[in-house]
Specification:
single chain; alpha/beta; Alpha/beta knot; 7-stranded parallel beta sheet; 6 helices; about 20% strand; globular
């Protein structure tokens, strides 16, 4: 499993996602668009929440997430996006196991969501059912929920 963060603005959210990615066994964090990187100007903010996880999880920066995902699909990767969308299925309805193909989970901007070009490339679009008035969780919290659900499929 890998995660792609596309245009995530908050270095604190990115750091928190790194820490959860490490905890749930994700092997790679792809940082795209305006997402802060561990070696960039927001390093101090990121490391306050990552607690060094950026040292434990492989990461790479890619300006264009759509171009990256097109390449991963050619290599056989399954592409899943976490987003409220008409094609979205509840994350709780996933099968009991994942296929043997590598899988990448895409998370998008805290404000605008996953880029429509990435959604077009997604094999599955997942959503986390909400029971309150708000329609989504904070991106770092949403990743933690999704990572927990997906890591159970890997065992």
């Amino acid at each position: 499993m890998a995660v792609l963060l596309d245009n995530i603005r908050s270095a604190w959210n990115v750091g928190s996602i790194f820490r959860s990615a490490d905890g749930f066994g994700f092997k790679h964090v792809y940082l795209c668009g305006i997402t802060p990187t561990p070696d960039g100007p927001a390093r101090e903010a990121m490391t306050k929440t990552s607690l060094g996880a950026e040292e434990a999880v492989i990461w790479s920066y890619h300006k264009d997430g759509v171009k990256l995902v097109r390449g991963l699909k050619i290599e056989g990767w399954q592409v899943w996006a976490l987003e409220e969308h008409e094609r979205a299925i509840s994350i709780s309805t996933l099968p009991d196991t994942l296929s043997s193909n590598p899988c990448i989970l895409i998370l998008g901007s805290e404000v605008t969501g996953v880029d429509p070009g990435l959604l077009e490339l997604a094999d599955k679009i997942l959503h986390i059912p909400m029971h309150g008035e708000k329609s989504s969780f904070n991106v770092a919290i949403a990743f933690g929920i999704a990572a927990y659900q997906l890591s159970g499929l890997l065992m």
